[in-house]
């Protein structure tokens, strides 16, 4: 685990779904941080199908563009600027359920 | 219609807001982050409690300013919001916002204090997940209280890496190595011309020395004069290759933090047509302004890294100057400290010049190969860009290359590749990068859902 524990108080974890796998995240965390903390670096695929991960973590590069299930549709958002929420479902490549 | 819109909630924007609010002007501050602070004081989520957060001595004035900003109920704070567009309409401005406070915002005056970002540097294997900017690793640490991966390798020419290394040590992270391409001798020679003047800003110099000593005591391998070659791994970073003292080495790493300098965020000034110039030595475009922080567009002001990367203390001083100027220009009761703030800012310049000279990647750029991707959004390689340039006239500007091979056409709008393309064109022509016309910057400055802009 790469979350710093000493001196840090976080709210109780919630569960979010990434590519069908369930990971734990704490309310307030960004999606990018939750993915990195879970040891899963993939955020999107490039044109050749190779995985891409977090690069700038400040909304500038868009390398962390993930697919998020919102209101019955898949929308693309920058994971580094998106807070986690209960029952959040994301996909790192297009065409996933 | 509001009096003042401030784009960016970092030290510059906050210092300006103090002045405009004190002058009785309605002030709205917009930032992509949920809480003010900027990247230097990127705050933990409001739901977290972090003991001793950023309590170093150098951060104290910044923290004081942040506490004042957050306590000021007159400020209209709009976090989690991107500014996608800026236009001048008659004598006022229209901002197109996206995110939590999406919509349009009309303002009589606008301050762009949008900060800077880590310069993306193309080298073999850099798109592998786990290879990050030093800023990304640092903000994960500061704000999210997450270590980006272990073991971690820090590499690049910018001394920020030393600060980051001590912060990673504090977090108990396993630092595999710090690889800096300059030797101690080269650093000393670069710093020498500025040392006498930099004595007026002893804080950062002392801090850098203390960081070095601490890293040595902790046994962190510091390799000066090491040249990073690239990154390898199957689907994610597994190792960093470099040469050191004439030999090639491979070191295992799950994460890498790269820092060769910073580029000003220049999308919005360029979108509205404000005068910019090539920033020296690191590159990118800094917005031109007068001593009172007025840009070339009437009613548009700039402060902080937007005017050239100079650090948080300079940003605070420039923000104060900009805030007083905006209050004056609005005919409001402006503060009287402008000359003091200008003198304070001027005293910082020798240290800023020193840091720029020391960090300058000019002679120590990592080498890209023909297969290395220059444009990470559209997956355009160095070879494709070179082939396109070879087909065009040497006088073809960045936009001509973009239109032929799609470099810079992706989601980042060229923020990752444009500086590299301009350097290549300048090198091919044998001219200064300032003589190469960059991409035409267009709306939107940030990716936004189409339904947010369709009524």
UniProtKB/TrEMBL annotation, chain A:
Task: Look up the EC number in the record and give it.
Answer: 1.5.3.1
InterPro entries given for it? 2Fe-2S-bd_N, 2Fe-2S_ferredoxin-like_sf
Keywords, in A-Z order: Oxidoreductase
Q: What class of enzyme is it?
A: oxidoreductase
A molecular function GO annotation: iron-sulfur cluster binding
Establish whether keyword Oxidoreductase is in the entry.
yes
This protein's source sits in the domain of life called Bacteria
Q: What is this protein called?
A: Sarcosine oxidase subunit alpha
From TrEMBL, chain B:
Protein name, please? Thioredoxin reductase
Q: Which UniProt keywords apply?
A: Oxidoreductase
Domain (FAD/NAD(P)-binding): give its ranges: 3-319
Q: Which PANTHER family match?
A: ANAEROBIC GLYCEROL-3-PHOSPHATE DEHYDROGENASE SUBUNIT B
Say if the entry is tagged with keyword Signal: no
Which Pfam families does the entry link to? Pyr_redox_2
Organism, per UniProt?
Answer: Novosphingobium sediminicola
Q: Name one GO molecular function term.
A: oxidoreductase activity
Alphabetized InterPro entries for the sequence: BFD-like_2Fe2S-bd_dom_sf, FAD/NAD-bd_sf, FAD/NAD-binding_dom, Metab_Enz_Cyan_OpOx_G3PDH, Opine_Oxase_asu/HCN_bsu
Which residue stretches, if any, does this entry annotate as coiled coil? Answer: none
């Amino acid at each position: 685990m790469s979350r710093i524990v000493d001196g840090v108080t976080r709210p109780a974890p919630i569960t979010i779904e990434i590519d069908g796998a369930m990971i734990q995240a704490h309310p307030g965390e960004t999606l990018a941080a939750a993915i990195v903390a879970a040891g899963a670096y993939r955020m999107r695929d490039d044109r050749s199908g190779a995985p891409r991960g977090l690069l700038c973590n400040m909304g500038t590069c868009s390398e962390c563009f993930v697919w998020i299930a919102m209101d019955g549709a898949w929308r693309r958002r920058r994971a580094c600027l998106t807070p986690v929420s209960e029952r959040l479902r994301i996909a790192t490549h297009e065409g996933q359920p | 219609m509001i009096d003042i819109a401030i784009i960016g909630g970092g030290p510059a924007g906050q210092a300006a807001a103090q002045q405009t609010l004190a002058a009785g002007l309605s002030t709205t501050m917009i930032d992509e982050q949920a809480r003010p602070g900027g990247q230097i004081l990127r705050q933990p989520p409001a739901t977290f409690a972090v003991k001793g957060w950023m309590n170093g001595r150098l951060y104290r004035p910044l923290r004081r300013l942040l506490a004042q900003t957050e306590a000021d109920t007159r400020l209209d704070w709009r976090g989690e919001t991107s500014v996608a567009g800026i236009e001048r309409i008659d004598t006022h401005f229209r901002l197109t916002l996206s995110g939590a406070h999406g919509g349009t915002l009309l303002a009589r005056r606008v301050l762009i204090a949008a900060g800077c970002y880590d310069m993306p540097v193309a080298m073999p294997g850099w798109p592998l997940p786990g290879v990050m900017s030093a800023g990304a690793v640092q903000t994960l640490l500061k704000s999210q209280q997450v270590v980006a991966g272990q073991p971690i390798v820090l590499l690049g020419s910018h001394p920020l890496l030393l600060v980051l290394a001590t912060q990673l040590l504090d977090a108990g992270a396993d630092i595999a190595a710090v690889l800096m391409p300059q030797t101690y001798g080269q650093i000393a020679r670069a710093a020498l011309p500025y040392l006498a003047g930099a004595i007026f800003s002893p804080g950062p110099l002392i801090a850098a020395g203390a960081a070095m000593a601490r890293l040595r005591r902790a046994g962190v391998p510091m390799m000066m004069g090491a040249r990073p070659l690239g990154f390898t791994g199957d689907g994610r970073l597994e190792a960093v290759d470099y040469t050191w003292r004439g030999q090639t080495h491979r070191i295992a790493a799950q994460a890498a933090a790269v820092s060769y300098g910073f580029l000003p965020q220049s999308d919005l000034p360029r979108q509205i047509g404000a005068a910019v110039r090539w920033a020296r030595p690191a590159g990118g475009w800094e917005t031109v302004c007068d001593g009172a922080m007025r840009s070339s567009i009437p009613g548009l002001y700039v402060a902080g890294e937007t005017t050239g990367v100079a650090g948080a203390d300079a940003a605070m001083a420039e923000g104060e100057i900009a805030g007083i100027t905006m209050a004056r220009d609005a005919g409001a009761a402006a503060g009287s400290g402008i000359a003091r703030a200008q003198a304070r800012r001027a005293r910082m310049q020798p240290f800023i010049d020193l840091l720029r000279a020391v960090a300058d990647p000019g002679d120590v750029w990592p080498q890209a190969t023909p297969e290395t991707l220059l444009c990470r959004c559209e997956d355009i390689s160095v070879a494709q860009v070179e082939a396109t340039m070879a087909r065009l006239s040497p006088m073809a500007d960045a936009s001509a290359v973009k239109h032929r091979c799609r470099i810079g056409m992706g989601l980042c709008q060229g923020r990752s590749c444009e500086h590299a393309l301009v350097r290549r064109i300048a090198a091919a022509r044998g001219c200064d990068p300032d003589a190469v016309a960059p991409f035409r910057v267009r709306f939107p400055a940030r990716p936004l859902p189409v339904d947010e802009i369709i009524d």
